Amino acid sequence: GAVVSQHPSRVICKSGTSVKIECRSLDFQATTMFWYRQFPKKSLMLMATSNEGSKATYEQGVEKDKFLINHASLTLSTLTVTSAHPEDSSFYICSAPLGSFPGVNIQYFGAGTRLSVL
Amino acid sequence: AQTVTQSQPEMSVQEAETVTLSCTYDTSESDYYLFWYKQPPSRQMILVIRQEAYKQQNATENRFSVNFQKAAKSFSLKISDSQLGDAAMYFCAYRRSNYGQNFVFGPGTRLSVLP
C-alpha cells in the first residue's frame, strides 16, 4: 500500500553542522507534504507545509533560514536543519496526503527522524 | 485557528476493561475530519479511527469506537477489551476537509494498560 518513507531514522551530529532529512512518498505523488516537530513527551507541532515547485509555507515562529525545505519533485521533500545547535534536537515527522481532491483524504506519516545535536 | 484539547495527560486501564479518552476541539468550520492516532514507543503514528464531521453515525473500528458530539465539539475514544498492546500515547487530531490540509494535534494522553 501507499506509504511515506523518511530517512534517516536517527542522526547524531556536532553543533554547527547541517543535517538533511528526506521524506518520500512511495507509489503516489504528493504535491504537498507537511513537516512536524515533536519535543519529548509533547505533541506534534506543524513547522511548515512543503509545496512542490514553490516555496514552503512556514508556521509562525519557525525560522525559514534555519529549517530549509525543498520539494523538488512530486515524491520528495527535504528538510535541512542548518547550523544545528543542541536546541534543535528533536523528533521530526513528515506526512503526505494521498489523493488530489476533497474526499480522498488519507494522509500517511513517515516513521520520523530523531535528531540529536551534540 | 483550530485548537484541540485533551484534558487527560495520563490514563490507565486494566487489561480486558474499557477506557474512554476525552477530546474537545474548537473550530468555526462546518466540514472537517477528526482522528485518533496512536504513537507507541517506536513513535510511528498509527491511525486508530477517523470521523467525518458530516456523518452523524459514530465511527467504529473493531475494539475502538468514538462518541462524536458535533454541537458540543467533543470527540472521545472508547477502547473496549483493552490489550497490553494498546499502551501508547494517543493523540486526538483535527483536519479541515479540503485536500492538502495539515493536522492540528491535541497534547496527547498516555495510556497504560495494567496486566
Could you characterize the architecture of this molecule?
The complex is a heterodimer of chains A (118) and B (115). Chain A has 118 residues and is an all-beta fold. Chain A has strands at residues 3-7, 10-13, 19-26, 32-38, 44-51, 57-58, 67-73, 76-81, 90-98, 106-109, 113-117. In chain A, strands 2, 4, 5, 6, 9, 10 and 11 form a seven-stranded mixed β-sheet that branches. In chain A, strands 1-3-8-7 form a four-stranded antiparallel β-sheet, with no helix packed on it. The termini of chain A are far apart. By secondary structure, chain B is mainly beta. Chain B has no helices and twelve strands. Chain B has strands at 3-5, 10-14, 19-21, 24-26, 32-39, 46-52, 60-61, 64-69, 74-79, 88-96, 104-105, 109-114. In chain B, the strands form three sheets. In chain B, strands 2, 5, 6, 10, 11 and 12 form a six-stranded mixed β-sheet that branches. Chain B has a four-stranded antiparallel β-sheet with strand order 3-9-8-7, with no helix packed on it. Chain B has a two-stranded antiparallel ribbon with strand order 1-4. The radius of gyration of chain B is 14 Å and the shape is globular. Chain B starts with a strand and ends with a strand. The mean pLDDT of chain B is 94. Classes of the chains: A mainly beta (118), B mainly beta (115). The interface between A and B is medium-sized, with 26 and 19 residues.
